[in-house]
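Task: sequence design from structure.
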């Protein structure tokens, strides 16, 4: 049997905790768009590495931006 290879995974760090100048705001669509998939789904924190506090703020900002039509509820379909 071969020994198992160790895969080094870097610990994910919250982008908003490391850079306090970056603010989560529903009007700042450039920042919010990075946390939404092409289909319009919010990316979970285990994938992106945001902390729980900032993930809650992100979800709230995304939902507000959708409500006033800054972000679409769903992405474009290929049909």
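Answer:
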């Amino acid at each position: 049997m071969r020994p198992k290879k160790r895969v080094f995974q870097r610990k994910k760090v919250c982008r908003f905790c490391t850079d306090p100048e970056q603010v989560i705001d529903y009007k700042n669509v450039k920042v919010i768009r990075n946390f939404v998939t092409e289909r319009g789904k919010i990316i979970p924190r285990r994938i992106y590495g945001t902390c729980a506090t900032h993930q809650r703020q992100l979800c709230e900002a995304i939902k507000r931006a959708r409500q006033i039509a800054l972000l679409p509820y769903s992405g474009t379909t290929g049909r």
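The mean pLDDT is 89.
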